[in-house]
């Protein structure tokens, strides 16, 4: 699959040779909760939308429930299917949403483009949204708090290896680390490498190894052979 058309949104961690040394940074942390003022503004906006008949309180609650019900489980199933079915993997890389809808009997509709970034032995992908928290919620659910933090958003594009180490993820120095920056129109999903020693696993067993963080690129699927 070709990489995103606008390569300006991709950052190659290998290009900056000064970014692999240790820094006096605190580990990536979750952002603070919204202030009281922001909560009041949110409530006022909801009430105004309801008053103007643009959207009802019930519709707002329904959408919140829908967002809260989404988890990384679907993304994990997609990855597991790609690991075990070469035809599906090819379709997923070429046209992700169409492949997912057809294979899993879904009707995911969105004007956004979904791009699947395939990890390889010599390439590791990571995802960020440097402006806010753009993220493939339809597959991964609500983004983690650290994904929205200023620390992660600002540092991962300039020192991805240091950020990976803070997540406990070690990537060989010979492996290129590439960071994809989500936009208002594009969402990214990382297709991680299948762990060695899982050749006889079922799709369900493989899906259990795939976490949200592995599909963002801050972690690797873990499997320890007996």
Features:
single chain; Nitrile Hydratase, Chain A; 2 domains; three-stranded mixed beta sheet; 10 helices; 12% strand; globular
Helices and strands in order:
Blueprint: E1 10-12, H1 36-51, H2 57-69, H3 73-84, H4 86-94, H5 96-104, E2 113-118, E3 123-128, H6 137-140, H7 150-155, H8 160-166, E4 176-181, E5 186-191, H9 203-207, H10 212-216
Parallel strand pairs: 2-5, 3-4
Antiparallel strand pairs: 1-4
Helix pairs in contact: 3-4, 4-5
Task: Explain this structure.
- It is a single chain.
- By secondary structure, this protein is of the alpha/beta class.
- The chain has 2 domains: 33-69, no CATH class; 71-226, Nitrile Hydratase, Chain A.
- The protein is 38% helix and 12% strand.
- The chain has 10 helices and 5 strands; from the N terminus they run βαααααββαααββαα.
- It has helices at 36-51, 57-69, 73-84, 86-94, 96-104, 137-140, 150-155, 160-166, 203-207, 212-216, and strands spanning 10-12, 113-118, 123-128, 176-181, 186-191.
- The protein has a 3-stranded mixed beta sheet, with no helix packed on it. The chain has a two-stranded parallel sheet with strand order 2-5.
- Helix 3 crosses helix 4 (86-94) and helix 4 (86-94) crosses helix 5.
- The longest helix is centred in the first third of the chain and has 16 residues, at 36-51.
- The radius of gyration is 19 Å and the shape is globular.
- 31% of the residues are buried.
- Residues 1-8 and 14-26 have low confidence and may be disordered.
